[in-house]
Every structure is written in structure tokens, then in C-alpha cells.
Design a protein that fits this description.
The complex is a heterodimer of chains A (108) and B (89). Chain A is mainly α and 108 residues long. Chain A has one domain. Helix content of chain A is 88%, strand content 0%. Chain A contains 4 helices and no strands. The longest helix of chain A has 30 residues. The N and C termini of chain A lie far apart (67 Å). Chain B has 89 residues and is mostly helical. Helices cover 91% and strands 0% of the residues of chain B. The radius of gyration of chain B is 16 Å and the shape is elongated. Classes of the chains: A mainly alpha (108), B mainly alpha (89). The interface between A and B is large, with 45 and 43 residues.
């Protein structure tokens, strides 16, 4: 039993690490699409690790099954939401930083 | 184990507090929408941590599931609305 608890704690610490990296990415990156790249991938992985850790900690009950259902739902929903948001940003004229630099070079 | 859940909850609270910078000062509405979507994920985990702290996980897991659904639908609705609004202008 203690081995399963240690495994759950390790999963949760991994989730905390990926949440921290995603937050640093969304604060420090220079551009909308790079920010969305950091938060989309990092948060999905962190939520999955956290939910697997909670499910291992809870044991084999109906509650852990519900937590795994949330994990499957997040695995499907989070990339869809990120894709919809990035497509809306691209069509509404959010610019890439790379393109702006090229434009400035051509002007000079 | 209780101390570990306290530490996890406080760390996630700190991350939410850092993320509020992008929600308040972020340039443009899309940065704000992306930051709110990321903030909802952290809230989902904080709800489950609160459930483990109070030994009432079987109640808080339903709240967390509803929060995940609402976060997904809200982000999708904001994205579709902004895209449609830009097409009409």
C-alpha cells in the first residue's frame, strides 16, 4: 500500500512541475501562439498526471473511476479548446512575432 | 499526507495568483481567454485537493467534473463568438 501512495505522490509532484512550467511559459513568452503552445501542452499533461495521482491515492472505488472519467474528458477536451482558440486568434489577426520581424527587415 | 495536500494547494494558489497578471494586463482578448482557460484547469485540481483535505472526495469530484465541462464549453463559446464577430465586421 505504501508503494502505491509513494507512486501517487510522485505523479502529483510531476503535475506540479508541469503546472509551474506552463505558468512560466504563459507569463514569459512574447507572442499569443507561443503562450498558447506552452499552456495547451503543459496544462494537459499536468492535469492528467494530477488526476492519475489522485486516482492511485484514492484506491479502487467509484470515486477513483469518476476521477479517471475526468482524465479521459480532459484528454479529449483540452486540445479541442486550444485548437479553437488558436484558430480564432489566427483569423482575427493575432500576429506571429516572427512575421513582424520579417516585416521590419523588409522595411529597412 | 495532510501536510502534502496543504503544500500542493498553496502552490497551486500561488500559480493562480501569478496567472492573474496575464488575465488582467494581457494584451488583447485572446491572451486573456487563454489565461482563463489555464486558470480553470488549476481550479479543477484545487477543488480535488480541497476534497482530499476535508475527506469528502465523493462530493467534490462531482463539482470538479462540472467545472471541467463548464471550462471547456466556456472557452469554446468565447472562441466561436470572437471568430463570428470578426467575420461580421
Amino acid at each position: 500500500m505504501i508503494i502505491i501512495k509513494i507512486l501517487a505522490v510522485m505523479f502529483m509532484i510531476g503535475g506540479l512541475f508541469f503546472f509551474l512550467t506552463a505558468t512560466i511559459g504563459i507569463l514569459r513568452f512574447p507572442d499569443f501562439f507561443t503562450r498558447l503552445h506552452a499552456t495547451g501542452k503543459g496544462d494537459t499533461l499536468a492535469v492528467l498526471l494530477f488526476l492519475i495521482g489522485f486516482s492511485l491515492y484514492e484506491g479502487f472505488t467509484l470515486t477513483s473511476l469518476k476521477i479517471l472519467v475526468i482524465a479521459v474528458f480532459m484528454f479529449l477536451a483540452q486540445p479541442t479548446a486550444t485548437h479553437a482558440l488558436s484558430r480564432a486568434g489566427w483569423r482575427c489577426g493575432e500576429t506571429l512575432l516572427l512575421h513582424e520581424e520579417e516585416k521590419n527587415d523588409s522595411v529597412i | 499526507m495532510n501536510i502534502f495536500f496543504h503544500v500542493v494547494g498553496l502552490f497551486l494558489f500561488l500559480l493562480v495568483f501569478l496567472l492573474l497578471y496575464r488575465v488582467v494586463f494581457g494584451p488583447g482578448v485572446f491572451n486573456r481567454a487563454a489565461a482563463i482557460s489555464a486558470l480553470g484547469n488549476k481550479t479543477l485540481i484545487i477543488l480535488l485537493v480541497i476534497g482530499f483535505l476535508y475527506h469528502r472526495v465523493e462530493m467534490f469530484v462531482d463539482i470538479s467534473m462540472v467545472y471541467a465541462l463548464l471550462n471547456f464549453i466556456g472557452t469554446l463559446a468565447v472562441a466561436k463568438y470572437l471568430e463570428m464577430e470578426h467575420k461580421n465586421l
